[in-house]
Amino acid sequence: MIPSVHLCWVLHNHQPVGNFEGSFEAAYQNCYLPFLDVFEPFESLAISLHTSGPLLLWLDQRHPEYLDRLRTLIEAGRIEILGGPQYEPILTMLPKRDRIGQIVSYSRWLERTLGVTVAGMWIPERVWEASLIPDLVAAGIRYTVLEDSQFRAAGLTDAQLTGYYLSDDEGSVLRIFPSSERLRRAVPIGPVRQTIDACWQIAQTQPGAVLTLSDAGEKFGGSPDSHRQVYRDGWLRTFFAALTDNAPWLRTITLAEASERTAPAGKIQLPDCSHRGMNEWTLPAVQQPTYQEATEELSHTAAWETLRPFVRGGSWRNFRVKYAEANEMYAYMLYVSGRLSDAEAAGADRGLLAAARDHLYRGQSNGPYWHGNGGGIYSPHLRNANYHHLIRADAILDEALNSFGDGHAVGATFAEAQVEDFDFDLLQEVRLASERATLWVAPGRGGRIYQWDLRDLGHNLLASLQRRPEPHHRHLFEDAGQGDVPTVAFHGRSGCTYGGSEPQLAYDRYPRKSMMDHFYDADATLDQVASGTALERGDFVDSPFEAKLRRASDRVQLQMRRDGNAWGLPISITKAVTLTAGSDEVAVTYLLENLPPHRTFHFGVEFHFASLAAGTEDRFFSDTDGQRLGHLGSRLDLPNATGLAWQDRWLGLTVDLKLDRPSMLWAFPVETLNQSQRGFEWMQQSVCLLPHWNVRGDAAGRWAVRMTWRISTSPRDTAQMPLLQRSVEWSRAAVG
Fold first, then answer.
1. Domain carrying residue 17
2. Quick one: how far is CA 141 from the chain centroid?
């Protein structure tokens, strides 16, 4: 046969739900638009293009001319549009109904908008399990593409990594193309000739073979260096010209054409896995260096090429173990999904169901459910966006289920409680809800509030994050000559600043949640508490409390009690949180008993509140007289406070604390050091408010305090309304 080869180039363009408007626009101007400008004139070339739902919806709103150009290229047979789950969730974390629903929803949107029939799809983050096959096929998908490393893990050799393979489960059959790692590493880093030569080698040994190259579109202009190389220096234009010049033996085709005109290379059953980076990132932070060192050592041995396909890290699912916050979001997502399923079964209003479903699907966007080399779960704007949509879906379902007795009418006041193992730890959690707020409390884990939803804003006040060791922290310490990462505070190196000061790299023993009870030494300082180095002298902060629910016609109260100790002395704490129908207040009361006479205890209660970045004039603390005390990145050490308020005017939120006995009060930001494409960045995750007292019991050995949290909301800053309005418009479009 005459040497020849076919090349399927699959481009994946993506921006997550909740990303900043500027990030969308920058990616469009630097990546997606110039790529199309260079591609259009080369009329003999064809590619398969996947654009994630959040990005394509944005393009439809902001740059409809881009979609017009896509339609022209689609009609010319030069671009095949790939589908996938609409808002780019990790498919393995979704219930079957949502896997199929997201894929079908996006396929229908693509058909209406671009006039295409979708047969192929992109697997988000290439997270694969064989159980996906029946659901993908049920959603109308015939083929997809995965990393060739996933095929090597099943035992295939380099010579077998062409064409596509059939994989089946429960009688459903799917075509899967292996994407070449060799080509991906060369494009667009290496010389153009390197890629052409690699294709020629395959053409000589396997005439007529199909090669697949899949990659992220952001590699083509996403950084200043890549933009210069790909566009200003002309790498992409040179590459397209080389493909055109070599067309007699090197023909670009779409996945659709390859699947229709070529026979399968065989059958395969792939192991559950993802791309190499994901398999590594999901490992515990303390084990990642071991994995890296082991693979580095093996890479210098003669056996490495033989062993490499079978050296893999962990399962993507482990992110829900590694980050409790990811599991909390996941559990809430499943709760909302279950309510939607119940509403559908009950025959609720179709318009309301469509709106709730679109919000649910947005809340399944994968970014904040995991962490790798980018922001992921460490990005507050991504966490806030997911929670916003999940809370919105939950509220809409109340309206949808109202006529069936399982919801609430718009404008109705109520107070209710629900007990269930919401987060799958075999412990009972409690959901306290009113028309204004929903509190999720874990009596078995310190009696803490771990989620605090504001229904009218669609905001979770406790979308906070615990500070943990991460592998990139280790590199900082090694660079500083300090060896292994210690468990104490470490000042960031020069250049890593936040709010005009240099934060501390510190780690938390416990999650950053609310109603967490501490006993500190009398001389404990704000710096020690903020850095996580203050000694814990009691056993209450993460230990189980006994719980009792009290219900009245207009209120619900969760009362929790623990007989524990501080400094080895027996002490009892009873605490209660109360929600009242029609009220914007949350009441928290504490009663300490069995306090020994003539002994003073340093006792504090920790609360956390997550919003967006601090350091701006519209996000600040104020005292009971309304005097500003500093922005939300400030540290406060107030000696005799009867209250404190903080405002986030962008969110339209004021949180006002009133105390019925004066306290000392600490406030400080919780910050993490993250690694991104721009380098190392400090990022504020939440604000900690910690009232604390020198407690001495009365004659009966008792001491009590009442804290009242008043949550006020108002419309968001009008300068930010386009982002919110766009979300509303998309939801309405989904209903239509």
1. 5-274
2. 26
